[in-house]
Amino acid sequence: MTGLVALLDDVALLARAAAASVDDIGAAAARASAKAAGIVVDDAAVTPQYVRGLAARRELPIIRRIAVGSLRNKLLILLPAVLLLSQFVPVLLTPILMLGGVYLCYEGAEKVWHRLRRHPDTPADQKPELPDEKTIVSGAIRTDFILSAEIMVIALKEVVAEPFISRAVTLTVVAVGITALVYGAVALIVKMDDVGLRLAEVPRPAVARFGRGLVKAMPGLLAALTVVGTAAMLWVGGHILLVGADDLGLHVFYDAVHYAEEAAAAATGAVGPVVAWLVNTVASAILGLVVGAAVVLVMSLIRRRKAHPASQTATH
Hints:
The chain is mainly α. It has one domain. Helices cover about 85% and strands about 0% of the residues. It has ten helices and no strands. The protein has helices at about 1-35, 35-45, 55-90, 95-115, 135-160, 165-190, 190-200, 205-245, 250-265, 270-315. Helix 3 runs parallel beside helix 5. The chain starts with a helix and ends with a helix. Mean pLDDT is about 75; it is low at about 5-20.
């Protein structure tokens, strides 16, 4: 009987340890997901653009294919890669994260540049030819790969000191949870107009009015998501570069922003923490825009250089 009681005590102890471990993993996953929030917003803002102009019945199937590709990116490619890096060459994590940050800055700055440019010779009612679904899905998954890599590396840096198994489980939870969150939100966004049309047909005036409001709100919502996505790219990319440079020993930019944060917080009293966060966010976005603009300039010069010999050959 004593042996049975001891065995039950051991089982209870293991159960408590397992529960504590699950709680720890859940807390770590929550912290890691919060750190990647900017990229999650960007991902959710960018994806609806891939199904604009397509038949309504094809929107959800395409989003589902992109979501499956995103999950495959995270679990089959990125998860093993970041775990191996963290185990054997953790020194490479910061440079890799900064490369992704530069890419985000470039993408954001390029969107700003295209927004500022004007093409008066292009008719306003001319619609671009839509690519086929396979091209749409493959392009979306390629873009998602970069964003997913940033999410996984950011999440990893939050749990890099944890044991290997805890790291693996936490990152798996982050990968599945963020993918479900992002593409669930995207599915709701792209079907909002269809829901609005259905509600507009309901005989109850209040419901019909709400449905018409949803339909009217969709263009503005998509435009706002584009702005939010671009801002998130610049903010997240700039912040990654700011922190990464500090980690690598270049402290001047981080110290300057940190000093500005402290000064703003001290000058604004009760709302100091919010103002300090805004200062950091704006500074990160400005850094992201500057770095991104430099990369856009370099890329455009490279494209012109490549195109110039071809034009010369065509003239001879």
